[in-house]
Specification:
The complex is a heterodimer of chains A (175) and B (90). Chain A is an alpha+beta fold. Chain A has 3 helices and 10 strands, in the order βββββαββαβββα. In chain A, the strands form 2 sheets. A 6-stranded antiparallel beta sheet of chain A has the order 1-2-7-10-9-8. A 4-stranded antiparallel beta sheet of chain A has the order 4-5-3-6, with helices on one face. In chain A, a hairpin with a 2-residue loop joins strand 9 and strand 10. The longest helix of chain A is centred in the last third of the chain and has 15 residues. Chain A is globular. The mean pLDDT of chain A is 89. Chain B has 90 residues and is mostly beta strands. Chain B has a single domain, classed as Folate-binding superfamily (Folate-binding fold), CATH 3.30.2270. In chain B, the strands form 2 sheets. Chain B has a 5-stranded antiparallel beta sheet with strand order 3-4-5-6-7, with no helix packed on it. Chain B has a two-stranded antiparallel ribbon with strand order 1-2. In chain B, a hairpin with a 3-residue loop joins strand 6 and strand 7. The longest helix of chain B is centred in the middle third of the chain and has 9 residues. Chain B is globular and about 40 Å long. Classes of the chains: A alpha+beta (175), B mainly beta (90). Chains A and B meet through strand 8 of A and loops of B. The structure holds zinc ion. The site of zinc ion has 7 residues of chain B, from loops. Chain B: One of its GO terms (molecular function) is sarcosine oxidase activity.
Chain lengths: 175, 90
């Protein structure tokens, strides 16, 4: 059998892109999926101290399911400790290599995303802290509002480049 | 065709996010006999009017719903989670 080295490379080989007031970035970090039965209660902030130094964000992903997103890449032992803490009501699956994180920020963020999202993104209907799974164009995405003018998208790795390119196209009118 | 579906978990969503399985029929007992099972698996009424269907929210919460709609007027009467209930109207 021929030897071939495993290569580790990002799903999207791109530096941050600025289009006028819009900024597209790939912040990296870790993405963990929490899987529970429908009706399971979300982990409280108190149950996430293991990752507290990594400013975790909790994203709704349907009944009994969430994504935990951290800016700092978590170590294996940190993930194991969180899994032990949340068991048995929630299972933790490390999706950091399976999904890709894209951040969109700047005043026109909502107008740009509206080109591909069928949700009402008005801050009264989709306030800061809201997250949901939906389509951006034809690509399944978990969309979260992280600020008045900033959003984060989690997308399956194989679709990351396509979504990134779509977002650039949608951003073009702004700069 | 219904264009916006009131998912009990996600709110109003476009039909493109869903996969439609077909009529929501009561499942026969395992020993109900061949005729009952053939009817359940293969035979459909194709009604003109009110219709209950299984819809999977594939690109949203990934829950199975029963959507009640009207095949003639395209009205959507409501949707509920198959396992959890919780009917929501549009
Ligand atoms: Zn849904």
């Amino acid at each position: 059998m021929r030897d071939s080295a495993l290569m580790r490379r990002p799903a999207v080989a791109s530096e941050p892109v600025r289009c006028g007031d819009l900024l597209l970035e790939a912040p990296g970090g870790s993405i963990l999926q929490l899987l529970g039965k429908a009706g399971a209660t979300p982990p409280s902030d108190m149950s996430l101290p293991e990752v507290a130094g990594a400013s975790p964000g909790l994203r709704n992903a349907g009944p009994g399911q969430w994504f935990v997103v951290t800016d700092r890449e978590l170590t294996g032992p940190e993930i194991d400790a969180l899994a032990a803490r949340l068991a048995p009501s929630l299972h933790v699956v490390d999706q950091s290599s399976g999904r890709f994180r894209i951040r969109v920020s700047g005043a026109p963020s909502r107008r740009m995303l509206a080109k591909g999202v069928a949700l009402d993104l008005h801050p009264e209907r989709f306030p800061v802290g809201t997250a949901t799974s939906t389509l951006v164009g034809q690509i399944g995405t978990n969309l979260a509002r992280t600020g008045q003018d900033s959003f984060e998208l989690l997308v399956l790795r194989g679709f990351a480049q396509s979504l990134w390119d779509d977002l650039l196209l949608m951003s073009r009118e702004f700069g | 065709m219904a264009s916006r579906v009131p998912c009990p978990h996600c709110g109003l969503r476009p039909k493109e996010e869903f996969t439609i399985k077909g009529a929501a029929l009561p499942r026969p007992a395992p020993d109900a006999g061949e005729a009952a099972w053939i009817e359940y698996v293969y035979l459909r009424e194709n009604p003109r009017g009110a219709y209950d269907e299984f819809w999977h929210h594939t690109s949203g919460c990934r829950r199975w719903l029963v959507v009640s709609r009207n095949t003639l007027t395209h009205d959507v009467y409501g949707a509920r989670d198959v396992a959890l209930g919780g009917e929501t109207q549009p």
